[in-house]
TrEMBL record, chain A:
It comes from the Eukaryota. Residues 251-472 form the Rab-GAP TBC domain. Gene3D superfamilies: Ypt/Rab-GAP domain of gyp1p, domain 3. It holds the Pfam family RabGAP-TBC. This is TBC1 domain family member 19. The gene is TBC1D19. The lineage of its organism: Eukaryota, Metazoa, Chordata, Craniata, Vertebrata. It comes from Balaenoptera musculus.
UniProtKB/TrEMBL annotation, chain B:
InterPro entries: Nicolin-1 (IPR040235). It comes from the Eukaryota. PANTHER family: NICOLIN 1, NICOLIN-1. GO terms for cellular component: nucleoplasm. This is Nicolin-1 isoform X2.
Length: 526, 193
């Protein structure tokens, strides 16, 4: 049909436009020029011969991976009449809510600045620059006075905003009727039910092998594990992103995980990438930002206190401080409902030539932000690679966990999915918890916002994040949250207060995620 | 193929409801929007005086997959000629009948309605006259020694022109990476409207 052809042409044009500025484009051009020397390239059939050469030498695969990456990350071209803000977020009231939330954050940060008389940003004096460069690898030993700093917001503040989210065109009666939702989220977003989830997560079914279930000590490795590892090695040698994404749905062997994630996220450490990271490091040395103190405080409060992650404290600074200076992150605001905060050079208020984004990457960290990076430290030890992986994970997934949008993987949809699953399949538990004033979302929200980092044991967390990458969706976080409640349902039915319910669900470190997910999705009688 | 916007006048929406609108508790689930075309001239008049009658050109076109949820609730939609069940050549008036069976919404409608018709074929890119039409000679002029063949030069210049146009049109969207203004990044406060 004519419309589909022109849609396809538009998508192709968009991807070509994006890839034209990339390193890959320059490399392909160089390779094409160099290949002219080869005897098999003939002038009469130049185009076909070069294409054949690309196929054999593996460059076509690299291009395929880049195209697949673009398709996974960027939304499809929208209607020509739709303005850019529609691409960020189609629903007007959600855009407005995100705008108000951002304004609150900016006001909070501004008042912190004025109270503490600390500038948002300043150039470091040369002596201070030298000092920082010297202790770059051990910034954790620094003990700056952070007592006056407070995190800009915590997940529970964000939850209150989401609870008050309303569509003005929706029947929001005060009295309870069939129209009001029984949970905390009151916006009618479309979420999947269990039959749809079973179809979506079909590879997690009971008849398929899983790492996290079928690799336990009681199961002989010949049944599943050995073959799965062999296939994983083959996928890596083929260097095919799409195949890797499909493969990892059944979990990744520990030895292959770092390479598989890099392949799926289309990260290859080129010299240019290492140089780029070094440039960011230079930016950190030269300019001191207020957000740096927020990052320090967050790391000290969360990751440093965690038994699994405190050893990586120095890595966390090296990644997060550079992340704040990375302007390439600004690109994700095209498809995020959020917008980067703006500021003006001192003394040039209102002059557009002196308008800048603050921080340079437009992302203001909140309490717990460093926990997005911490688990990755187990996989990557080289700072620039660790940095690239984290940045890609953020612009693909994590940004959706702290912005208000109607996207199926956005935190609002995840909350509604969690509440709907619990209500539908554990109605007695849901009703009981509601009656005692312990709305389940109040407990599970912090798990989902952090993608369970810091709550699960690290090997279990990595198995969970395998599936986030495999399905290119965060919905599994909501399903796991419901599955945890289902698992502890008996204890939860006995409690009589929110505090007691929190206590039952305080420690998730002994949980095995894959059996929980399988039981909830495929073995619960509906 | 270009398209030409057709000026249209969208009348106010009329809700279809059984009983008295004021006293009735429920909300209307059907809306009718009439669209008239003030300048009917672009459309052909029928030569014979057949009375105008209503013809269904689109039936049960779903805009929201689930009437109770937000999916597709605020979307831009295009409808095309090839989706229509009848010939759209002689349209005098258009009537949109909207149905929203869910009682959860306070109101529903379509906004920013725009109608287009196929315009004249856009002229292809024209080269400046002297490039594409070298001066015709009465008889082929003898080639002067040492000078290149004029028709070959003309075609090569045309190709180069096209190449420069292409290069000028294709620009990358990569950022340079600087976040400061001339090395300065001294900021006081964040600004918001």
């Amino acid at each position: 049909m004519l419309q589909e052809e022109s849609d396809l042409a538009l998508i192709i044009a968009q991807i070509v436009q994006k890839l034209k500025g990339s390193n890959l484009y320059a490399q392909l051009e160089r390779q094409a020029w160099a290949s002219l020397q080869r005897p098999e390239i003939k002038l009469e059939s130049l185009k076909e011969d070069i294409k054949e050469f690309f196929k054999i030498s593996g460059w076509e695969k690299k291009l395929q991976n880049a195209v697949y990456s673009e398709l996974s990350v960027f939304p499809l071209p929208s209607h020509p009449a739709a303005p850019p803000e529609h691409l960020k977020e189609p629903l007007v009231y959600m855009r407005k809510a995100q705008g108000s939330w951002e304004k609150r954050i900016l006001k909070s940060l501004n008042s912190m600045c004025t109270e503490l008389s600390i500038p948002l940003a300043r150039k470091r004096p040369v002596g201070e620059q030298k000092e920082l460069l010297n202790k770059w690898n051990e910034m954790g030993t620094d003990e700056p006075d952070l007592s006056l700093f407070r995190p800009v917001y915590a997940p529970k503040d964000f939850l209150e905003v989401l609870i008050n989210l309303r569509n003005p065109n929706y029947e929001n009666g005060d009295s309870h009727s069939f129209r009001t939702h029984l949970g905390l989220i009151q916006v009618p977003l479309k979420v999947k039910d269990i039959p749809e989830l079973k179809e979506f997560f079909v590879e997690l079914g009971l008849t398929a092998g899983q790492l996290g279930v079928d690799d336990s000590t009681q199961v002989p490795p010949e049944l599943f594990e050995n073959e799965h590892v062999r296939i994983g090695q083959k996928v890596l040698s083929e260097q095919d992103s799409a195949a890797a994404q499909q493969y990892i749905r059944q979990g990744s062997p520990t030895a292959l995980r770092a390479e598989l994630w890099a392949l799926i996220l289309n990260i290859s450490s080129q010299p240019e990438d290492i140089l780029y990271y070094e440039q960011l490091k230079t930016n950190v040395i030269q300019h001191d930002l207020l957000v740096d103190s927020l990052i320090y405080k967050d790391v000290k409060l969360t990751a440093s206190n965690d038994d699994y992650y405190f050893v990586f404290e120095d890595y966390l600074y090296q990644v997060l401080l550079c992340f704040s200076r990375d302007t390439s992150v600004l690109g994700h605001f095209a498809y995020s409902s959020a917008s980067p905060p703006k500021s003006y050079i001192r003394g040039k208020l209102g002059l557009e030539e002196y308008a800048v984004f603050y921080p340079p990457n437009g992302v203001i960290p909140f309490h717990g932000f460093s926990m997005y990076v911490a688990p990755l430290c187990f996989l990557y030890h080289e700072p620039s690679k660790l940095y690239q992986i984290f940045r890609e994970m953020y612009v693909r997934f994590f940004f959706r966990l702290h912005s208000i949008s109607s996207h199926p993987s956005g935190i609002v949809s995840l909350c509604l999915l969690f509440e709907t699953l619990l209500q539908t399949y554990l109605p007695q538990l849901f009703y009981h918890l509601r009656e005692i004033g312990a709305q389940p979302l109040r407990i599970s929200f912090k798990w989902m916002v952090r993608a369970f980092s810091g709550y699960l044991a690290t090997d279990q967390l990595l198995l969970l994040w395998d599936r986030i990458l495999g399905y290119n969706s965060l919905e599994i976080l909501a399903v796991l949250a419901a599955a945890v409640f289902a698992f502890r349902a008996v204890n939860l039915m006995e409690v009589t207060s929110l505090a007691a319910a929190e206590a039952v669900l305080a420690d998730l470190s002994t949980l095995k995620v894959m059996p929980l997910l399988q039981i909830f999705l495929f073995a619960t009688v509906t | 193929m270009s398209r030409v916007s057709v000026p249209c006048h969208v009348k106010g929406t009329v809700a279809l409801q059984v009983g008295d609108v004021r006293t009735s508790q429920g909300r209307p689930g059907v809306l009718v929007i009439d669209v008239t075309f003030p300048s009917v001239a672009p459309f052909e008049h029928t030569s014979t005086h057949t009375p105008a009658k209503w013809v269904t050109c689109l039936r049960d076109y779903c805009l929201m997959p689930d009437p109770h949820s937000e999916e597709g609730a605020q979307e831009y939609v295009s409808l095309f000629k090839h989706q229509m069940l009848c010939d759209m050549g002689k349209v005098l008036e258009l009537r949109l009948i909207l149905r929203q069976p869910s009682p959860l919404w306070l109101s529903f409608t379509v906004e920013e309605l725009q109608i287009y018709q196929q315009g004249p074929k856009s002229p292809s890119m024209t080269f400046p006259k002297w490039l594409s039409h070298p001066v015709p000679c009465e008889q082929p002029a003898p080639l002067l020694e040492g000078l290149p063949d004029p028709s070959r030069v003309s075609s090569e210049v045309q190709q180069m022109w096209a190449l420069t146009e292409m290069i000028r049109a294709s620009h990358t969207s990569t950022r340079i990476g600087r976040f400061d203004v001339d090395g300065c990044y001294d900021l006081n406060l964040l600004s918001y409207t």
